[in-house]
Design brief:
The chain is α/β, with parallel strands linked by helices. Helices cover about 35% and strands about 25% of the residues.
Length: about 240
């Protein structure tokens, strides 16, 4: 009988956000497929989970295609596997699509263990319309492609959610201001951590708030076109 592939969400910052179910799975499964084995090893240590007898397998963007046959063979041999990313819910702009697709096609049970997700966490506290939203993933690396994507947002309804490398934040905010006049944006950073911060307002105001200071890592950026607020009926 084949094993089960568990898709396990892990904290995006605050370790107390780990769920009881995630803890149970991480304690029990013999094999963990990790975006970064060192990072997952530190997480297990912080959660006081014994690694003895555990197999941690690197599973990231660069080797995902190559590692799928290995994980499938492990599952088909009857061993359970937990897929974890460095933070949050796997497959949300993280590797995992191929193994989930292949496992499901092979009749292997795929079980989600829900938990933290930075996109949803940011949306819930953004103050922007949340009844309709689109997750756009990471912004394009080059300005022309970003500008094209932002221009298309002006024809959409609902809130768009992006991941943005912090080093490009001010440039991205300036591009949104040009592409979508009147848009409201929210910059969410350090979510669930000690220095969690939400900056809300126009693209220009948010850019000014970060002038002279560059956040580390990546931020979650939410964008609401002006007509999405104007056309929304009062409930």
């Amino acid at each position: 009988m084949p094993g089960t592939l568990y898709i396990v969400a892990t904290p995006i910052g605050n370790l107390q956000d780990i769920t009881l179910r995630a803890l149970a799975i991480l304690r029990e499964v013999p094999v963990l497929a990790c975006e970064d084995t060192r990072h997952t090893g530190m997480l297990l240590k912080a959660l006081e989970i014994d690694r003895t007898g555990r197999r941690l397998i690197a599973f990231h963007d660069m080797n995902e295609r190559r590692q799928v046959p290995l994980l499938l063979s492990i599952l088909q041999e009857g061993q359970d596997v937990a897929l974890v990313s460095d933070a949050g819910t796997p497959l949300v702009s993280d590797p995992g699509y191929r193994i989930v697709s292949e496992a499901a096609a092979a009749g292997i049970s795929v079980v989600p263990i829900p938990g933290p997700c930075s996109a949803i966490t940011a949306l819930s506290a953004s103050g922007l319309p949340s009844d309709r939203f689109t997750f756009m993933g990471f912004v394009a690396p080059k300005s022309p492609r970003r500008m094209k994507a932002f221009a298309e947002l002006g024809r959409m309804t609902g809130t768009a959610i992006f991941f943005v490398p912090a080093r490009t934040l001010e440039k991205v905010l300036a591009e949104i201001g040009l592409a979508i006049p009147g848009a409201t944006v929210v910059v969410a950073r350090e979510l669930t951590k000690l220095h969690e911060e939400f900056v809300r307002g126009s693209p220009e105001a948010c850019a000014a708030a970060f002038s002279g200071r560059t956040p580390r890592g990546e931020v979650t950026l939410l964008v609401s076109p002006p007509r999405d607020r104007e056309d929304r009926p009062v409930e």
